[in-house]
UniProtKB/TrEMBL annotation:
The keyword DNA-binding does not apply. Gene3D superfamilies: (Glycosyl)asparaginase (3.60.20.30), 3.40.50.880. Belongs to the peptidase S51 family. The active site is at T487 (nucleophile). GO terms for molecular function: hydrolase activity, acting on carbon-nitrogen (but not peptide) bonds, in linear amides; serine-type peptidase activity. Keywords: Autocatalytic cleavage, Hydrolase, Plasmid, Protease, Serine protease. This is Isoaspartyl peptidase. It comes from Novosphingobium resinovorum. SUPFAM superfamilies: Class I glutamine amidotransferase-like, N-terminal nucleophile aminohydrolases (Ntn hydrolases). It comes from the Bacteria. Substrate binds at R515, V516, G517, D518, T538, G539, S540, G541. The record marks G486, T487 as: Cleavage.
Amino acid sequence: MFAAAPALAAPGYKRYVLGDVDASAATTHEGGLLLMGGGDRNNDAMKWFFGHAGGGHIVILRASLGGQIGEEFYKQIGGIRSAETFVFTDRKAAYDPKIIAALRRADGIFIAGGDQSRYVRYWRGTPVAEALDAHVASGKPLGGTSAGLAMLGEKLYGAMDGGSITSAEALPDPHGSANTIESDFLHLAALKGVITDTHFKERDRLGRLFAFLAKAQVGRAPDDPALLGLGVDESAAIAVEADGSGRIYATAPDGGAWLVNGDGLRGTATSGPLQAHRVRVTGIGAGSVVHLPSGKVDAPTFVRNYAVTGGSLVQVPLWSLAIHGGAGVIERGDLTPDKEKAYRAGLDAALRAGAAVLDKGGASLDAVEAAVRVLEDDPMFNAGRGAVFTAEGRNELDSAIMDGATLKAGAVAGITRTRHPVDAARAVMDHSPHVMLMGAGADAFSKDQGLEQVDPSWFRTEARWQQFLTWKKTHQAALDRTHLFGTVGAVALDADGNLAAATSTGGMNGKRWGRVGDSPIIGAGTYAKNGQCAVSATGSGEYFIRESAARQVCDRVGYLKQPLAEAAQATIMAVGAIGGDGGLIAMGSDGAPAFAINDLGMYRGRIAAGGTAATAIYADERPGD
């Protein structure tokens, strides 16, 4: 009875016994699940498990090796009446009355590691599976490590092809035959809607858990909650109480678990590499509490977003913002130190304004509006205060804004009294059935909306007036070549994965006949679409209109599958090919901005969650250099 050798070798299984299996069962139990990541067992976690089993009889199930875990439990950790191990060699053992009787009288059941495909083949639809469900339902603890954890969820990766798929193999073909997702195995309330995985951090399994979730949710009812993925590190275990609250036991300081929200992995293409724009992952550490099956995590160690493009996994910042303040033929030495400092200060202030919105969980739409408002008030830039003059000596302002989540957009052209034209564009989007209003009608609408109105002299600056007087003499553009194309704009990605873009401009110096450029034209100078990109352009607007430049960038990303930077550069070169100059900024679903310029400089900047504002001016300079 106390030997480590098998006490019984029966058809389909071997039995190993340590301790007195005939001793009375524990008198009290506490329900719970011990979810172990597959490494060395944490003694404190095992004592939690044995305590919930009342220090009684522990039954160990496995499909390979022998009674080693029983020896560890009984001899090394101790505190239990017996450790009884059954090693299955085929499916018929799952119907053996002796095994079923042992499971029914067990105070705690522990499922060892090994090959989970054997567990699926040997136990699904058998009395063993029924006994495991009944054991948990009766308020007794169940534990599993490695493969023994991997098969506990509502859905599971079965490894049915005889191997173990890696992240590098799963991401390029998540719906392929190698990704064997199984169901209708166990039915544990705390793991309803959950897929578990093990050896997580150590074997870089985040990518494959994404693939599991993508395939497992095919055909899932739209009104059902998204599946969750729960990956546990080798050095960690989650002890889940009967009420579903789980805490980490770890053998290493950084040991923990990863909770993947499957909402961003629903409805993915059922062929080809995995494409996912934003997947939320929450870290569970020693000070955290995870609530199952809801997936709520108290005091997480981190909250991260990831994107998958072309089968490659990248971490996405929680939010990201990029801005521009126009383009010009800018070389080092063209700007005085004071002027360069003033431009950078203006860009930095705009970045901080947009970042303040995003850092509080605000929407990308609000962030781009906030950033552009700052630039509209800065006389260094050709938008709002500091706008250039028309041929009639007036300041006529254009602006646009677009929401990538809804494709709603608003724009104004030729307004003369609204302090912040971007606010007027937002009001058109939010409070009218239209996309663009112009001239006197736009002015009247802005006033009716209660937006701040100013005397037209507010927009006048002496520098712009002198440029206008020079233009009157020659009827040629007299802008400072370092700010040849004066427009401001912003693009952003928020914590919910929504993109937005906004653009504002005073237009061209000496413009006539009510000329409108690309800035307020949706698809030309401004565009945003979730899952693709957000764009704000600056330059010779007529050429950007002809190329539908802003929409073109997003189409290249969405339909040609070009990387954002490549799409942005190809678009600006297409503008250049028909005679246009300028630049554009773009933001992708992964939070990485792109800055494209055709042989010009551009006033620009970027900032992302957890980072600092960085600006750039010259063509060979990158923000942050």
